[in-house]
Every structure is written in C-alpha cells, then in structure tokens.
Specification:
It contains five helices and four strands, in the order αααβαββαβ. With 151 residues, it is an alpha+beta fold. The two termini are 21 Å apart.
C-alpha cells in the first residue's frame, strides 16, 4: 500500500463512486474473505479489468477498514415486551461483540430507549450486516449509530 501520510481523504457515499471503484471494493472483499485466491479470480468474478483494479486498489476502501478504534455506540428504541433486551444481547453475543456499557430507560408508553457501547474488535460479522440484523428485529423500532470508531 502506498504511503498516504500527508494526503487528504474524503468520505463519500457509495452511490457517487464510479462503477469501477465499487467493483474494486467488491473484488477486495472477495480477496479478504478468502472467497477467491487471486486478483485475477476476483476481477473476473466482479467483471472488472485488472488495470482498473490496480488503479483503485490503494485509493478506495471501506471506511471501517481505516479506523483503529473499534467502539460503536448505538441508540435503540425498543417495544416494551418481555425478553426484548435478552434477545438483543443474544444477537450482540452471537456476533462476538463485547458489551462495554448498557443504559436502558424505564419504559414509557410501551417504549424503552437503550444505548449500547460495544467493542467490535473481535466481531465475526460485517458491521453493516450486524446493524441491519439489529434493525430487523421485530421489537426494534429504530436503531441509530450515535458515535463510532468502527464504521
């Protein structure tokens, strides 16, 4: 990887990246996950030229891959039902995430607010996948990342 000291970085949404940049990210993910064993296989899989891959491989990367601190703070609104916090914590534990703090308010009008501070260093899932799983739980009304060194 090139020395990036002194270079400026920008955070941009995925939808503004060129198709070649997006495919480069996909190819890098295939390589990192071990789904393919060579750059040739990765670029073939995502329909990208090798020259485009080499052009962008050291220039585009998921934001979470450059952040050293791996602490995520999530604010959730939960329906007040029996076992909701237990199920939420089961999901967290199932992803090998260490819980640093839990703060839950007293339920008011059938809803409770929960703030979780999580150490995601040893997480076994992709961060985006974990957050989406959390949001899909039937008792989660909303889930927002309020601070992160993990994204």
């Amino acid at each position: 990887m090139k020395d990036v000291t002194g270079q400026r970085f920008y955070l941009v949404r995925e939808d503004v990246l060129t198709e070649a940049m997006q495919k480069t990210l996909e190819a890098k993910h295939l390589l990192q996950s071990g789904k393919v064993s060579s750059i040739w296989d990765a670029v073939k899989e995502v329909d990208l030229s090798r020259s485009a891959f080499y052009k962008y491989r050291d220039a585009v990367f998921p934001f979470h891959s450059i952040v050293q601190e791996r602490i995520l703070t999530v604010f959730l609104q939960l329906e007040d039902r029996e076992g909701t916090l237990a199920r939420l914590l089961q999901l967290v534990a199932g992803a090998s995430i260490n819980i640093l703090t839990i703060h839950q308010t007293i339920p008011i009008q059938g809803r409770a607010s929960v703030t979780l501070s999580l150490d995601v260093t040893a997480m076994t899932k992709e961060l985006d996948d974990f957050l989406n799983e959390m949001k899909r739980l039937d008792f989660v009304e909303s889930a927002e990342v309020i601070s992160s060194g993990a994204l």
